[in-house]
Design goal:
37% of the residues lie in helices and 13% in strands. The protein is α+β, with helices and mostly antiparallel strands. Strands 1-4 form a two-stranded antiparallel sheet. A two-stranded antiparallel sheet has the order 2-3. β2 (66-68) and β3 (71-73) form a beta hairpin.
Length: 92
């Protein structure tokens, strides 16, 4: 396992990667937005980001979930005028 300093560094890198992923998402506007669409935020997409960063840090993450308003959701589609950013990461 990782020692305390390494664990903190891995968590910080993962949180930064999730925030970058979320900020890269934007609503789809027909005739304006270039393909591919980037309006969906999925637990699987976030999990892929987390897994890549964790592996590079020598860490293992066993599960990732996406929640909105305290409820776990599989995906969220940004609506016109919405942007996404990281609000909170809970480590257990």
């Amino acid at each position: 396992g990782l020692v305390a300093g390494e664990e903190d560094a891995a968590q910080a890198a993962i949180e930064a990667g999730i925030d970058d992923y979320l900020r890269s998402r934007e609503p789809f506007i027909l005739g304006v937005t270039r393909l591919p669409r980037t309006d969906r935020i999925t637990a699987a997409g976030i999990s892929g980001v987390v897994d890549d960063i964790a592996s590079n840090q020598g860490a293992t993450v066993t599960s990732v979930s996406l929640s909105l308003g305290g409820d776990s959701i599989p995906a969220y589609t940004l609506d016109y005028g919405e942007k996404a950013k990281l609000n909170n990461v809970e480590w257990t």
